[in-house]
Amino acid sequence: MKRIISFGDSFTLGLGTDRKVEEQLFQSAKNRQEGKDKQRKFEINNSFTKFFADKFKVPFINTAVPGCNNKYILNEIMKYDMDKGFEKDDFVLIGFTSSYRDKLPFFPDVYNDNVKSGFQLCMKELSLLKMGKKNIFFWNSKLDKEYENNLNKFMMEYLKFYMVEVFDDSYWQIYNKNIIVYIQKYLEYKKVNYIMFDAFEPALIEIPEFINAKYYWECSKKNIGSFLKEFKDKDLFEIDGYNVGKYVTPHPSIKGHKLFTKELYRFYNEVY
CA 197, CA 174: separation in Å to the nearest integer? Predict the structure, then answer.
């Protein structure tokens, strides 16, 4: 093994490993960008990617981006290979995020191009819609504010109707299957070894044909969040008050990242 390269969302990045330190680093910076850079450096150096790389005494690259969707992860893998290139003996970690962050092709572009996430941050966040208080658009959306307010009002109601009357999870299963198969086949073609896993929601409800589950940790069974919850230890997660909502699985703390690293290392030795 030459180096570890990871792709994923905030769980893979290391967001929430120590919220107080992350906040102090941001506040002590000269500007917003410097603060974000300091936070990111701290987070990736306390993430399971770093701890996993330490097991093999190799360098690591953590490309994870908070709030991204699974299509973004696919694109980042391809972009990385195009710009930098996977090398012999590279090892890749891929942490899939919530399926519901991906944009729906049957929703209009005027919605998809300005919304905070494709469908919702995660499945559990959908319950917030019933409160009718959440603006679903970016603060700097390109929409005229009057039009945005009207569309926001409509979508808040339409999403409720959609969830009850139209929603069919089989769409995401087909969508995710195709993303996962593509990544697996591409990495096999490049002769790059990998491990896949889910951050806080399952990308697949069951293992479909063509998916190689051998290198997919607890495929359709567990995710990082559910795995850590099994230990019933609050210290495995970020401190209260920082997560996007009480319905969303909190990010792992440094302790949580170290525990998942131990499990990841066990799984690596099992399949490789």
Answer: 18
